[in-house]
Amino acid sequence: EGERYVLVSHAPDSDSWWNTIKNGVALAGEQMGVEVEYRNPPTGDLADMARIIEQAAASGPDGIITTLADYDVLSGPISDAISSGVDVIIINSGSPDQARELGALMYVGQPEYDAGFAAGQRAAGDGIGSFLCVNHYINSPSSTERCQGFADGLGVELGNQMIDSGQDPAEIKNKVLAYLSANPETEAVLTLGPTSADPTILALEENGMAGDIYFGTFDLGEEIVKGLKSGVINWGIDQQPFLQAYLPVIVLANYHRYGVLPGNNINSGPGFVTADGLTKVEEFAGEYR
Amino acid sequence: MTGSTQTGIADERIKETSFIRKALIRPELGGIVGTIAVFTFFLLTAADSGMFNTQGILNWSVVSAQFMIIAVGACLLMIAGEFDLSVGSMIGFAGMLIAIFSVTLSWPVWVAILLTFAICIAIGALNGFIVIRTGLPSFIVTLAFLFILRGFTIFFPQTFERKTIIGGIKEAAEGDWLAPVFGGKIGGPIFTWLGDVGIIDVFERGTRAGEPVVDGIPMLIVWALGLVIFGHVLLTRTRFGNWIFAAGGDAEAARNSGVPVTKVKIQMFMFTAFCATVFATCQVMEFGSAGADRGLLKEFEAIIAVVIGGALLTGGYGSVIGAALGALIFGVVQQGLFFAGVESSLFRVFLGAILLGAVILNTYIRRLITGER
Amino acid sequence: MTGSTQTGIADERIKETSFIRKALIRPELGGIVGTIAVFTFFLLTAADSGMFNTQGILNWSVVSAQFMIIAVGACLLMIAGEFDLSVGSMIGFAGMLIAIFSVTLSWPVWVAILLTFAICIAIGALNGFIVIRTGLPSFIVTLAFLFILRGFTIFFPQTFERKTIIGGIKEAAEGDWLAPVFGGKIGGPIFTWLGDVGIIDVFERGTRAGEPVVDGIPMLIVWALGLVIFGHVLLTRTRFGNWIFAAGGDAEAARNSGVPVTKVKIQMFMFTAFCATVFATCQVMEFGSAGADRGLLKEFEAIIAVVIGGALLTGGYGSVIGAALGALIFGVVQQGLFFAGVESSLFRVFLGAILLGAVILNTYIRRLITGER
Amino acid sequence: MSDAIIQMKNIQKHFGSVIALAGVSVDVFPGECHCLLGDNGAGKSTFIKTMSGVHKPTAGEIFFEGKPMSFEDPRDAMEAGIATVHQHLAMIPLMSVSRNFFMGNEPVKKKFGINFLDQQKADEITMQEMRKMGINLRGPDQAVGTLSGGERQTVAIARAVYFGAKVLILDEPTSALGVRQTANVLSTVHKVREQGIGVVFITHNVRHALAVGDRFTVLNRGQTLGTAKRGEIEYDELHDMMAGGDELAKLVPELGKQAQ
Amino acid sequence: MSDAIIQMKNIQKHFGSVIALAGVSVDVFPGECHCLLGDNGAGKSTFIKTMSGVHKPTAGEIFFEGKPMSFEDPRDAMEAGIATVHQHLAMIPLMSVSRNFFMGNEPVKKKFGINFLDQQKADEITMQEMRKMGINLRGPDQAVGTLSGGERQTVAIARAVYFGAKVLILDEPTSALGVRQTANVLSTVHKVREQGIGVVFITHNVRHALAVGDRFTVLNRGQTLGTAKRGEIEYDELHDMMAGGDELAKLVPELGKQAQ
Ligand SMILES: Nc1ncnc2c1ncn2[C@@H]1O[C@H](COP(=O)(O)OP(=O)(O)OP(=O)(O)O)[C@@H](O)[C@H]1O
Ligand SMILES: Nc1ncnc2c1ncn2[C@@H]1O[C@H](COP(=O)(O)OP(=O)(O)OP(=O)(O)O)[C@@H](O)[C@H]1O
Ligand SMILES: [Mg+2]
Ligand SMILES: [Mg+2]
Per its record, what are the GO molecular function terms (chains B, C) (predicted)? Predict the structure, then answer.
């Protein structure tokens, strides 16, 4: 009882997807009767994140749940934390191998590149040969990996197909419109989350391509769910961030209380969400989904 | 009163300047030159990319109109000798307030909008009041508000809704009388007619095949033009406009001459907040959601547009038309680079270079006009 | 030369001021008060959270040291009457250059580091040169470079490596003579001994079981202290320091008195760039990778630390010790709120409030000292 | 005495720990030029700033046309008829001459029920008033920054006179001016006075004061040393008073006398 | 003529389209006070700025102690021995008196092979020099911003004198000063001149010029109207010359004469 766990993410404050994580970890904490904290670098600077992990370790928690957005930057602080007796679970980014190498208990999540690659293969299967990747967070390595993975999955060169859209919805919308009117032969659109997906949906509605162009997205949100339902979006890749936050707390608490630990890593994502079976998703999009 | 020959008409100590040059040099000149240059450039390089068909024009017009809305506020404030770094955070904050009022609290959308305007304008006044009372540079005061407002913009939705994006505003706004003023479009029938007679293209495929590609002018553009005209008239044709110039040129001198400097400056802070709120409301009504990350870096973009448009960062000089042209240049370049297929990460490099080039040109023009040394 | 009684010792027109008050009022006073307040606060609220154990202390020390490194540069530049908004972008840019030189091009790391320093300092000089030659405000010029440098920081790695993050620098730096100067630690044996005798904690398990939790002082801290001492001595104890004050206080007057203002200002821009590069190099060497997102908003953080530390935004007044205290306050608050368990989105609200409070206090102190009106 | 336009009674003004005025009384009659003399820091500028509404006095009373008055800000004073040309010029270099001329008193014209600036009227009046003062502008939109110091001073005075003040206050209008410009300003003062306007003229220069003054008040360290009428007082006496008694004259006899 | 410290020959200076100096020649001998007179905008400040290295002349030659010289910046001129007190004060209000006093000429002390500022020496000298000038500072670290205008002017002059100039240039040092401060400055000029230093004294005030000047050069619209020796020229003549011929005297006879 009363264990303390800290979850450290690499996302800037205002990121909506990570908000699901925040809610997930809070819920798990409530249910298990443990103290949980969510920490992140305000601007998304990974170097700042390393400091936060160090600091989390210094505050002597029972466990740390963290992403591995950049192995080079974060491996030092994480392995120091582990060495000083804090149990660590890696979530979301990085890979199971890297987690093992560091001595983390387990890995919960789905590596960004792999997710992008799988999506690319799926799109290739649907006969897609070119695409537009709307990157609203160009500074972040994981966003770029998603686009790169998708391109590799399709078997095409990424090149100019990834645009730096910025985070202003009107600018995203109009950049998508501009790109599509300058490159009318584009066959698919890939967005990286609600920030870029919502305006893109509007853009496609405006230029009449909604439902016509192949549209896939990462992560879920209210508008994305509506898009899936109306057929504007073909699929969404859901890593189920909720599980990435919720499960580690459960695992850690049970490990600390009863010494039980699952033998394998957990794949949080079932992969693709399509128009079928959306009711729960709809209800909790942006909160727990 | 006649002994003064030093001011005779011919002055042998001034070399001649041509008449044309004198007619040309006005604050907006830099903006005009820049606009011509930018359009020429893209007409040459991106003419066949769709940038100048109906859809393309609407595309960069909307982006430019966004910049214009905040540029007008920033311009008048800058001429009054201050600036506001909290514009971007204010945009996020205003949007979030509307969302919380209308979705979380389920109040009518018009109440949400009006209340948000009231709160944001009050914050603008507070900004101004602190600047005036403490004599601190507005850079510092508004930097503090940049952080404070952004902090609340993230904190509120997480506390009330456990989300950082609040959606569902479109549904809430259905049937509201005030929402279309920000999120609607005008001139729909005209465009339908234009599409029917073939002057503008119609959609060839998709759900909207047969409809004109452009089905109206977004209210965003109407607001932008309205604010530009309002700002321009206010600045050049009213006594209040003269006070804005005076307050920014030399607050002490203006005060001694009976200009109510404190009032002018605080009102300009309020006007800037008003413009930011218009921006936020249009965005929220168009997209139906408010996000905690909206408006990031918009304060810089507003300042850049204003400065490209010929205003003096230290106040007392500038033009709303210039700022509007600056916003236009900004929007056209940003969108044009996409049409022209330039690597998008280079946009920032272009922006920086244009900014530098524009201010150097503007400084030269200003020195010619004001005889500043 | 004796007729002037107006300057007699007793002046009936000045009311008395107490001696203690006079002894206390110095530029750093605001910083000192703030530091005491902040530590008192956290000692009361977060004493048992690990904030003040060895690891905890190291943690906020490292964060504060980071701020200090850029604050020293920003402080001297601000006192010289200019400021640099491109610091954050410069940090990203410098890190990326090192990565590209050492990883992509496989040059020796020391060559990469030295070349990066040369390039960045040259960019600093260019910044300064443009500011001086065109007479534009440094706000605008360095804002342009904020965009230009960030643009290249994203463009280069995408072009050369098709990523926005380049890793593998740690491996490349192995055995390099220069890398440890930025990425190493000192005092290892002392800490081992401290761990052995039980004064500080040791790791409980893993490959490093038995080693002390803190195994040395990172070079980052050494650089920070070194730069603070260097900056302080330069500013207060050398003739060049006097020129920095003079250049910022009134460039024209300084120039007339024979102070080489142009040189001073450009050198301060170069020094700021140097500090940013030190920051970037330490970070790259410690973490082994460079990302396009490094250094975002660091320019503001540097300016905030300097202003909290009592410097005048408009130049001519300030203290390096004050700036260092400002950085300490900033670092301790940022990390301390975490230890104290405050909702993280509220950090910005605190930061804004502290900034406002600090400048108001500092303004009051400054007016006492300089008799400014 | 009751027909004085403005009476300042026992005015005190403190700035924080500095006592700038320690009780000064002065009154101004229509058509007279009242000279205020005094050394640096005597409080002359501070005094006239309380008169023109820039500062509020810490203590003391102001009577305007016999009625007690307290000006909230410079606009109030201006509206009551007190025009001031401040020592540090109240001109904005980046703005045009006509905009400066009418700053704070812009002429308006109603159109569609809205008060618009009457730019044309402003321009015409400016050109005409400047011509009266002997300054030929390139145009009303010429920036003040392109004028010489003397020209700027003249604009400021022309403005004050134009707005039909009952009292015109000039704070050291001649200190930075050359011979020609000085003569110009002094003759303007003379003309203004003849129109029945009360002039308060501040100067360090006893000769300038004697050239146009009707009464002379000497301030010293925030206090009045008394007021004298024209003809009642001689150059030397005034000069010695300004210098704070005759001690100075003894100390640097040769230079002190010759200088002023 | 060859023993002049500084000879300026046919100096021209253009700013963009403005011709500020159209060929002015002046020379300064040791121990003389050379007065430069002229109306606003005559080019006096511009002229002495070329002398002190602030501006480079567009055309013309400068001989310093007989040798042709061209100053790259004010430091060069200072090192050669030309000290200048500029019209718009070369003092920085936020800095302490002693830092201002030594600005650009800070005393240094070698320690560990590094040149450190000798603050103690600077403070002592400042206090002592200011005391000589009759100003009792609260301390050497008092900010210049807390001094009165007259005191600041005196600091600037004390500084120039202290640095052992061969030529001391004063640009309108008395224009904003009261009687007492003026007398102070004039007697300083007198003392400096007696030490064999050449003084260039710029003023609008003919009386001030006559009080200390040995030679008088009148500038008008960027040109010299000639140079006269003390005793060769009378007050009225100088005054008329400054005003650009006698036309002015005729036009405003009463005021023009009485004023200066
Ligand atoms: N705003 C202010 N705050 C503090 N002290 C002030 C302020 N204004 C003036 N003083 C002080 O009040 C005193 C009188 O100043 P004032 O400007 O009235 O003198 P003055 O007679 O006009 O001098 P001068 O001839 O130099 O113009 C001075 O000691 C001055 O330092
Ligand atoms: N930096 C400059 N750029 C352009 N014009 C200038 C510059 N400096 C001076 N001038 C012009 O040169 C002329 C001479 O100016 P200067 O300052 O030398 O006059 P002055 O004799 O010192 O006048 P005052 O008695 O008012 O001080 C003026 O017309 C002035 O406007
Ligand atoms: Mg005064
Ligand atoms: Mg001059």
Answer: transmembrane transporter activity
Chains contacting B (3+ CB pairs below 8 angstroms): A, C, D, E
Strand order in the sheet with D33-38: D82-85, D167-171, D198-203, D33-38, D215-220, D223-229
Q: What is the pLDDT of residues C232-273, one digit of tens each?
A: 999 998 999 999 999 999 998 898 888 899 999 999 999 999
Give the CATH number of the domain where residue B192 resides.
1.10.3470
Q: How far apart are CA A132 and CA A147, in angstroms?
A: 9
Task: Kindly report the pTM of this predicted structure.
Answer: 0.90
Given a contact cutoff of 8 angstroms between Cβ atoms, the answer to whether D228 and D46 are in contact is: no
Looking at chain B, list the stretches that DSSP marks H as alpha helix, in order from N- to C-terminal side. Answer: 19-24, 29-45, 54-79, 87-99, 109-134, 138-160, 169-173, 179-183, 188-196, 219-237, 239-249, 251-256, 261-287, 298-308, 320-339, 347-370
Give the best residue of C93, C296, C330 to mutate against chain A (max A CB count within 10 A).
Answer: C296
Note the ipTM here. Answer: 0.88
- Top-confidence residue, D249 or E135: E135
Number of compact structural domains in chain B: 1
C79-96 as b/e: b if 16+ CB within 10 A: bbbbbbbbbbbbbbbbbb
CA-based Rg of chain A, rounded to a whole angstrom?
Answer: 19
Q: Which domain holds residue C198?
A: 52-370
Partners of D239 on chain E (C-beta within 8 Å) are: 179
Architecture in CATH for domain E6-93+156-259: 3-Layer(aba) Sandwich (3.40)
DSSP A240-270: -HHHHHHHHHHHHHHHHHH----SS-B----
Q: Is C36 within a domain?
A: no
Of B2, B255, B257, the CB nearest to D134: B2
The 10 Å Cβ neighbour count of residue A22 is: 24
Among E74, E88, E143, beta carbon nearest to C257: E74
Q: How far is the CA of E70 from the centre of ligand 4 (A)?
A: 22
Statement: residue E258 has pLDDT above 60: no
Domain positions in chain E: 6-93+156-259, 95-142
Residues of C with CB under 8 A from a CB of D: 2-3, 5-6, 12-17, 373
E strand segments, chain C: 165-166, 185-186, 217-218, 290-291
Query: Residue D179: which residues within 8 A CB-CB, separation 6 or more?
Result: E39, E204, E206, E239, E242, E243, E248, E256, E260
Q: Can you tell me whether residue C286 is helix, strand or coil?
A: helix
**CA angle (C348, C349, C351) in 5-degree steps:** 60
Partner-chain contact C317 E94, CB within 8 Å: yes
Closest atom of ligand 1 to CA, residue D87 = 27
